[in-house]
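Summary for the funding panel

The consortium committed to producing paired sequence-structure records for every protein in the target list. Below we show the first two records in order, beginning with the earlier of the two.
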Amino acid sequence: MKVLLAPGGLWPEPAGVPLAGPGRGLPASSVAACLERGWHAVRPDDSLTLVPMADGGPGSAQVIAPERIASREAIQGQGPLGQVREVDLVRLGPGPARSAAQRPGEGRTWFLDAARLLAPPLDPDESAQEARHGSTYGLGQVIGTALGRTSPSDTLVVGLSRSAVHDGGAGALDALGGAPAAMDLLVGRSLGLALADGIALGGMSGAGAALAEITSLSPAQAQELDRRACAAATEAVSAAATPRPSFGGQQRLLPVVSALDDAQMPSLSAANSRGTGHLSTTTWGTGAAGGGAMALRALGAWARPGARVMAEILGLSDTVLGQDMVVTASGELYDVLADGVVDVVGDLAASQALPAVLVCGRCATTRGELAGAGISSVYSLQEPHAIEPWDAGGPDVLEARLTDMGGRLARTWSR
C-alpha cells in the first residue's frame, strides 16, 4: 500500500493561534517521522512517502526537502524587543518537472522564514510586553538583507504569521529607510507573502482585537494598541500611493514571474486593477506580523495563503499522484480554515478520490465540515471531555503517542 504522510505541526493553539516553540508540541517533520515509525512497525512492507507540510508560519523552511534546496543561509535580525534572532533564507532549485521548462525571464525563487523572527511567545505576559513595546524593525532588516542576496529577476517569498507585536509595520518600514526608500528598493522586484494566517489587521475580528486573547492585555489596552497600529499602517498605504518622480508619476508595479510550480500569482494587470487604494485595515491578510503584511502590500508585495504556496514549493500535487491514501495532522482544530494545511491536503486527496485521514491533538469541529474539506476520518489524541491537555508530558510523551497512532492507522487502513 502507498501512503502519503503530509502532516502539519502539532502546536498548542490558545485562541486559535499556533504557538510554535521548544517544550510544547512537535514540528511537522517530527510528526511525520513518528507516524512513519509506528506504521512501519505494524506494516513494514507498505510504501510511505513523507512530505511534512507548513503554512508559512515559523519553521516553514525546515520542511523543504534537501534535494529542493540550492542554498541555505541563516540571516540575523532584531527580534521584537531587540534580541538577536536568526531566520533561514533558502534558494530553491527547480523541481523535477521544471528543470527543462523555465520560462524566459524567469528568475530563481527564494523563501525567507521571517515568521520565526516575530513568533508569539508561549507566556501571555511576554506576549503583552511584545505588544506594548515590540517592533517589526527586524522584519525590515531581514527582508532588506534577503533582497541584497537576490537578483532583480528573482522572486522572494516571505513567510509571515500572527504575532504579538502590533505596530502596523512601522518598524519594518523604518528598517527599509522609510516608504520612499523602500519603494525604490523594491522597484522591478517580485516580493511575495506566504501568509499562515489570513486575519485582517483591524476590525471586530482583526489581529488587534485578538491581542486580548493571546496576551495578558485587557480589551481596552488591546483596543488602544490596535488604534495606533491601524493608523500607522494606513499612513504607510497613503505614502506608497503617492506618485513618485522616479516612477514617472505612475505607481510602481512588481513583475510577478515565479519559479513556483503551477503558481497562480497575480498578474501585472491584476495588480494594477487592485492597487493600494483598495488596501485597508480590514483587507484579508493585513494582520500578519503585526501589520507588517499591510505595509509590505502597500509597497506592492503580493500575498497568498501560505499553505498553498508551501504545497507548490513542496510539489505536493505531484506527490499525491499514485498514492492509496493520505494522512495529515494539526494541533488543534476548531474549524477548517480555508486554504490552511488541512484544507489544502484534503483538497488534493479529494482531487484523486483518495481517503484522507486527519490526526489531531484536539478536534472540535464537525464531521460535515471535515468532509467538506476532503477529510474521511479523524483521530484525536485528546478525548472530547478530557481535562488533561493533549500535549501533556512534553515532546517525548507526544512522540510516543504519535508513534502508537501510526500503528493504529496501519492496522485500520492498510490492506
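The next record, for a separate protein in the list, is shown here:
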Amino acid sequence: MKSTTAPKTVRTLIAPDKFKGSLTASEVAEALATGLRSATDMKDPAGAVQCELLPLADGGDGSVDAAVAAGFTRHSHQVAGPTGKPVLASIAFDGETAVVEVANTCGLALLPGGRREALDASSRGFGDAVLFALGLRPARIVLALGGSASTDGGMGMLTALGFTFQDADGRQLHGSGRTLSQIHSVHHNPLPELAGIELIVACDVHNPLLGPNGAPAVFGPQKGAQTADVVVLDDGLQHFAAKLADAGFEHAPSLAGHEGAGSAGGIGYACLLLGADQVSGADYFLDLLDFNTRKDSRDIVITGEGSIDEQTLAGKLPAAVARRSGKRPIIAVAGRSLLPEERWPDMALTRVYTLAEYTDQDSSKDPDLSAALLRRIGKDIGTSLL
C-alpha cells in the first residue's frame, strides 16, 4: 500500500468490534493504535500515523462500553445476575438516550463458575437495569440484546417491569425457563415511567421465539440445554405466550413468530410485547456513535472482529463499517479469517491481517497474547502506510 503520494501524516479511524472471549473493542483499538503510532518512516521521520479510536458494538456484549467510549456517561447499579446472585451492572446515558445491555446484567459470562443453567437462568437482571435507566428519565432506551444466559422469553425481565406471574396455588413465580410451564395467571400493573419512552431493540438476530428456528432449538444448546431441555423450553414458551394472551395481550401468540422474537433467549419477544421497535444493531450503533461523521476526516478505516467469515459478509459489524466507508481503503484485523483473499473485494477490503498469521498459539483465550499481536500488526500496518 506504499505510495509516493501518501501524506506524511496518515489519518486512521480504528473502529473494531470486540474479539469475543479475549479483548473488548476498546482493548483491540488501543492495542492497534499503540502499534500504529510506533511506526515511523525511516526515510522521512516526519511521517506519522494519526489514530482516532472508535470501539464499536452491534447490540451485543460491549454495547455499554462502546457508548461510554463515545462520550456517554457510565452509571452502575446492582441487579440480579442470571442465577439471582447480585452483580454490579452498568448502563450508558447521555442525557437523552440510555443503553442497557443483557450481557452485563444476566449474560453467560456472569454465571458462577461458568456453569450453564439452561432451565434456571433468568433475565430478571436486565429488567432491573431497565428500571434503573427509567429513573434517569431518558427519552429512549436502547435494549442491547446478546450474550444471554437464559431462555425465559423475558419472563424475568417483565417481573421487574410491572408483571406478576403466579402458579395454580397463587404463588409468585421466579422468571426462568423452568417456571414458564407453571404459569397459571398473569397480572400486569403498567409502570407510569414507561409511558412515552421510546424502546429500541438493537439486535441482528432474526430467529422467531418457537419452533425449529426458535430460541430454544437454535441457541438453547449454547446455554447448556440438552435435547430434552429444548423440548421443555419450547413448550414452556408456547404456554407463556398463551397465558399472556389470556391476560389481555391478544397479539402475544402472533408476536412469537416475529423476526427477532427469539433473540437473547426470547428477551426480544418480551421487548416486542412492551412495544419496542426492532432495528439493525450494527447500523444503529454506527449511527449512535456517529461513525459517518468520524470517518469523513480519515484517510484509512481499520475494522475487525474475532473471526471474519461468511457470517461477516452477511451483515455483521465489519461489513457495515466497510459499506459505510466509501472509497477510502479499509483494512480488517481478526483473530482468524476464513475468507479467502479473492473474497476480500466482497467487503471492499484492501488487506486482512490475522493473529493466526503471527503465532502458532491459540490467542482466542489469551488477552495478553492477543494484545501483543495486535500491537505488532498495528506497527506493520503503520509501516505499510508511510
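Regarding this second record: The radius of gyration is 22 Å. Residues 310 and 322 are 15 Å apart (CA to CA).
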